[in-house]
Design goal:
Helix content: 40-55%
Largest sheet: 5 strands, antiparallel
Shape: globular
Number of helices: 10
CATH superfamily of the largest domain: Aminoglycoside phosphotransferase (APH), C-terminal lobe
CATH class of the largest domain: Alpha Beta
CATH topology of the largest domain: Aminoglycoside 3'-phosphotransferase, Chain: A, domain 2
Distance between the termini: 53 Å
Length: 282
C-alpha cells in the first residue's frame, strides 16, 4: 500500500507524520463535493480515519467540538468513533476506525429495527444538555432569507410565497440541544450483527431537537410510516411541535435547494425543490 498521499496542506502532512508515522492508506472515503480528504489508514496494526479539511472547510471545528463535548454517550458504547488526535487550526483530526458499512443503499435502510436504534441513539445525544435561546428563531429566519438571496432555482412566485411566509412567522424562544445536523442513513453504520453506529459530525451544533428529524422526513419517512413509528418508539417521544416543525421544514427545504444548486448536485437540488413544495403544502 502507498503511504498517505499529500493532504491539503504541508502543516497537516507534518502533523500526521508526527501522530501516525509511516501510516498507510487502506481506502479513500472522500466525497469530492467539499474541500476535505477522508482517508482510512493503518498504523502499527490499527485502523484509523483521517479527516483533513482545506482552508474553506468550515465544518471541521464543529466536528472536533462534537468529539470533545458530546459524543461520550455513544463512544462508551462503541457506537461512534473515538477521537485520537485533533488540531482545530490545522483542520485535521484522527479517529479510531469504526467497523461496519453505511446503512444507505442496504436492506438495513428499510428495516424498522435500524430506525428504532437510530432513535435510541439520537435520544442519548439530545438528552445531554438543553439551553434556552431567545434569538434562535429570528437568527434562523435571517439565514433562510440569505439562502433566498443567494443563487438558486426556486421559482420566483414560490420565492415570493416563502418570503411572505417567513415574514409572518413568530419568533419565540427555542430550546436547543446537541444535534448531529445530518441525521440519516448515509451517516449510520451497521455491523454484521445489525448494530447501528454513527459517523460524521461536521454539522453538529446546538439546535432544537426536531431539526434532526427533518432529513428523515424528506427522505426515509416519506411513504414509510412504519419507519417513522419505529424511530419515534426508539426516541421515546415526538419532539415536533406543529408551528415550529413547519418552520423547520421550510428552512431545511430552502437551504437544500439553494446549496445543491450552488454545488452542482442536480439530483439533490431536485429533492430540495420537492421539499419546498411539500413544506408549503403542509
Amino acid at each position: 500500500m502507498d503511504r498517505v498521499p499529500s493532504l491539503p496542506s504541508a502543516e497537516q502532512q507534518h502533523l500526521l507524520d508526527a501522530w501516525l508515522p509511516g501510516a498507510e492508506v487502506v481506502r479513500d472515503h472522500s466525497w469530492g463535493q467539499v474541500e476535505r480528504s477522508v482517508l482510512e489508514v493503518t498504523h502499527e496494526g490499527r485502523r484509523y480515519i483521517v479527516k483533513a479539511g482545506g482552508r474553506g472547510d468550515h465544518h471541521m471545528a464543529r466536528e472536533i467540538h462534537a468529539h470533545l463535548l458530546w459524543l461520550e454517550p455513544w463512544t462508551v458504547l462503541g457506537r461512534a468513533p473515538r477521537l485520537v488526535h485533533a488540531d482545530v487550526a490545522a483542520h485535521l483530526l484522527v479517529t479510531i476506525h469504526l467497523p461496519g458499512r453505511l446503512v444507505l443503499d442496504t436492506d438495513h435502510a428499510h428495516d424498522p429495527a435500524t430506525y428504532r436504534q437510530a432513535g435510541e441513539l439520537l435520544a442519548l445525544l439530545h438528552g445531554q444538555d438543553a439551553a434556552t435561546d431567545p434569538d434562535h428563531e429570528a437568527r434562523e429566519n435571517r439565514k433562510t432569507l440569505a439562502w433566498l438571496d443567494s443563487p438558486h432555482r426556486i421559482a420566483p412566485r414560490t420565492e415570493e410565497r416563502l418570503r411572505a411566509l417567513i415574514a409572518s412567522w413568530p419568533t419565540p424562544a427555542a430550546t436547543l440541544v446537541p444535534t448531529h445536523g445530518d441525521w440519516q442513513p448515509r451517516n449510520w453504520l451497521v455491523d454484521e450483527d445489525g448494530v447501528v453506529s454513527v459517523i460524521d459530525f461536521g454539522r453538529a451544533a446546538l439546535r432544537p431537537a426536531m431539526t434532526d428529524l427533518a432529513r428523515l422526513e424528506a427522505q426515509q419517512f416519506r411513504g414509510h410510516p412504519e419507519l417513522e413509528r419505529a424511530f419515534l418508539d426508539g426516541y421515546g417521544a415526538d419532539p415536533r411541535g406543529p408551528g415550529a416543525w413547519q418552520r423547520t421544514l421550510v428552512r431545511e427545504a430552502v437551504s437544500t435547494a439553494a446549496w445543491a444548486h450552488q454545488v452542482g448536485d442536480e439530483e439533490f437540488e431536485a429533492q430540495g425543490l420537492r421539499m419546498v413544495d411539500d413544506a408549503l403544502a403542509a
